[in-house]
Amino acid sequence: MFKSIAWRCKIKNLSPNFRAVVISGKVTHQFSKKDDVNVLEPGSYFGAEEKASPRLETDVETVIYIRSNGKFKIK
Q: I want to staple 73 with a disulfide (CB 3.0 to 4.6 A). Which of 12, 38, 43, 51 is the partner?
């Protein structure tokens, strides 16, 4: 079976305070290739330490609210 990935990225957190909440859709999340994959649905959230780069993937339209008191980069 072939799974089409509509969107894949890393979010590099450059601030001491970073939180993200899934508003709609569904996304998979992991902190590194070695970590477990977590499925995040609406209402789910994750945080990231400074300089962390969590990985996100989705194949459906997804809205994520990000709250940070500094910069972050989406790659």
A: 12
φ/ψ of residue 73, rounded to 5 = -125, 135
Using one digit for the tens of pLDDT, what is the confidence trace for 33-57?
788 899 999 999 999 999 999 999 9
Res. 2 pLDDT band, cuts 50 70 90:
very low
| Secondary structure string (H, E, C) spanning the chain | CCCCCCEEEEEEECCCCEEEEEEECCEEEECCCCCCCEEECCCCEEECCCCCCCEEEECCCCEEEEEECCCEEEC
Q: What does the pLDDT read at residue 1?
A: 41
